Amino acid sequence: MNKRLLIRVLISSMLFLPFLLHNRGDIRLGWLERLEQMSYDARLLFTMPNTLDDRIVILDLDEKSLLEEGQWPWPRDRLARLVNRLFDDYQIKVLGFDIVFAEVDNRSGLATLERLAKDDLQNIPEFRLALESLRPVLDTDSVFANALANRATVLGYVFRHEGDAGEGVSSGMLPKPLIPSNENDTNIPFVEAVAYTGDIAMLQNNNAGGFFENALVDRDGKYRRVPLLQKYNGNIYSSLALAVTYHALGRPNLDFVFQHGADGPRDGLDLEWLKLGDKKIPVDENAAVLVPYRGQMGSFPYVSATDVLNGRAAKYPLKGSIVLMGTSAAGLHDLRNTPLGNRFTGVEIHANIVSGILDQSIKHHPRYVQGIEITILFLLAAFLTAVLPRIPVMTATLLTVLVILLLTVVNLLLWSRGNFVLPLASMLIFTFLLYFLHMIYGYFVETRGKRELSVLFGQYVPPELVAEMGNNPGKFTMASESREMTVMFADIRNFTGIAERLSPPEVSQLLNAFLTPMTQVIQRHRGTIDKYMGDAIMAFWGAPVRDPQHARNALLSAIEMQGALSQLQKGFDRRGWPEIKVGIGMNTGEMRVGNMGSSFRMAYTVMGDSVNLGARLESLTKVYGVDIAVGEATCKAVPDFAFLELDRVRVKGRDESVAIFSPVGPRDEMGNETRQMLKKYAVALKFYRDRDWDSAEKEFFGLTQSFPKRKLFSLYLDRVTRFRSAPPADDWDGVSDISHK
């Protein structure tokens, strides 16, 4: 792993760490939590059905009821009449009270009369008889209890938790637990209460009950999730909404559904659902549900309690409905802060939960969502860390926007079609911060390196190679080093004579017209321009970017340059300029490359014996009548090309002889005529080096007749004629000495 990639990985890891710790609960990122809550609220508001559910009716202790019937609490006999009206006259299905009846009703005067019967009037039998006859009427708690008896009613009560006022004091009576402690075989971390305020025993005895306080209010005070079950003294108790639904569905069995079945860990992490009959209720690790708000307050019919009490309410929608009794009156303080606003009645929150269970519309947010979230964040980090440094800024920006859009669309699809809640803000913020940090690092650190490379190498190498070098600029310097490379020299033949026939502006135009396409070809094949020497070009391959195919790329470049020259000549002909020929010499070998020169002028160039030979080869193209001449090392480096061996030469400045070649073309593309020519030439060259002048003359003569345009064969025919009359020395090894440069 190179240094820059390591730094990129470190940047992503440092960003990933706080998200991981926040996900685990080791630290709390308040800003991220608030953004997540905002994204949840936005999705909720965006996807709410906003329809009226008339299966559930709110029996409202509204301002009208308080004005007509008096302040709350009302006498229990009046509540009994209300219950009787609901069941007998309006034929409701279930009645739940978002109210706790924690104290005995003493307003009938029964307690005072009983005290008098004990004390001052105990000796008056008539008083005691009258009291007993009035007791059934004056004992309003009994009257209310009788109205509740044998009916589908659910009384409300309140649990208290650590930190609550009066947390150690309980009062009233709890209903029978939904799951007694000895039957609870789960490891679910239920919300655990330490005390309660229940209904008086007379009312609660033999009646169902459900708690209605919310111990899981979010830190911003909003009701987003509510526990369906709580634990007290090891027993499991039901919420008001769950208890009401339980009775509305005919009291079916309640079961826990775990991801790994009954034999799994049966803990909060493994918990998937509560199953109430055929209804599946998605819950989190605390057996709590996300409140499935249908819409703004008023998503359920509201009926004034006084209208029911006095028979003024219409039968619809009460008949056959689930009724929840609560209050919208501000003075009774049952308004809650929700994602939909801060004046939402508590009783309608229960109604939304009941409706969500019946409709199977409660969103699923199990504990293992944490694992899904952190896995996605890790994959985002890995993907963007690998991709962002490799692409341009605009492409990176577009990619990041597409990733954010994809995350949002998938999240909304899971939300709306799968009722599955994945965190959204954390993923979007994490993606943006990854992009931002990598772009900042790329701009201030890597871009600086790329700018430096562009300044150093931009005049020599194509922009594509500069960009490639920019991916790891630390690897590239102008310091001198030795490596195997290929060098090329390309020169216009007889340029002096051509220039004499043109005006100075035309000479300049011709050179520009020649050098531009030649340079483009060289750079297209990953070549580096060393310098322009008047009408000549010097280039090399293998630096500053290492290129294992430097010889091949140089050869392909030379061949394409000759092809481009023929196209260029058409334009020259139209302008009346003379025809130009270009000789190209190239050689492969060990060279010294780097920034060389003096304190006055430096240049990134190559030097060495292999470079000098490349220059000699360019001049030899005129001698042997070829367009391209290459050294033996270049020939060996491109084995799939066929080459014509020109000669073995000993050039000025070198003691050792070298074989020189001219490329013919790819071996698999050669025609039969070319193959025969190479075979005959190889035979002729052997006769020549063996001093068999007669046989050599015969072969070379045949080649000149078959290929009159190849100067090489005529050259050897002339040599044979000369050697026949003036034979070479006895130690002649077939090498030609080239004294000129």
Draw up the topology in text.
Blueprint: H1 3-24, H2 30-47, E1 56-60, H3 63-69, H4 76-89, E2 94-97, H5 110-118, H6 125-138, H7 140-148, E3 153-160, E4 191-192, E5 195-197, H8 201-204, E6 208-211, E7 225-227, E8 229-232, E9 235-238, H9 240-248, E10 254-258, E11 271-276, E12 279-282, E13 288-290, E14 302-304, H10 305-309, H11 315-318, E15 322-326, E16 335-338, E17 341-345, H12 346-359, H13 369-387, H14 393-418, H15 425-457, H16 463-470, E18 481-492, H17 495-500, H18 504-524, E19 528-533, E20 536-541, H19 550-574, E21 582-597, E22 602-607, H20 609-624, E23 628-631, H21 632-637, E24 641-651, E25 658-666, H22 672-689, H23 693-706, H24 711-725, E26 736-738
Parallel strand pairs: 1-14, 1-15, 2-3, 2-15, 3-6, 4-8, 21-23, 24-26
Antiparallel strand pairs: 3-5, 7-13, 8-9, 10-11, 11-12, 16-17, 18-20, 18-21, 19-20, 21-22, 23-25, 24-25
Helix pairs in contact: 1-13, 1-15, 4-7, 5-6, 9-12, 13-15, 14-15, 15-16, 18-19, 22-23, 23-24
Shape descriptor reads rod-shaped
Helix content: 40-55%
Return the domain count: 4
Structural class: alpha/beta
Strand content: 15-25%
Sheet with the most strands, sense and barrel status: 9 strands, mixed
Tally of helical runs: 24
Radius of gyration: 48 Å
Provide mean pLDDT, rounded: 89
Describe this structure in words.
It is built from 24 helices and 26 strands. It has 741 residues and is of the alpha/beta class. It folds into four domains: 130 residues, no CATH class; 304 residues, no CATH class; 190 residues, Alpha-Beta Plaits (2-Layer Sandwich), CATH 3.30.70; 71 residues, no CATH class. Strands 18, 19, 20, 21, 22, 23, 24, 25 and 26 form a nine-stranded mixed β-sheet that branches. The mean pLDDT is 89.
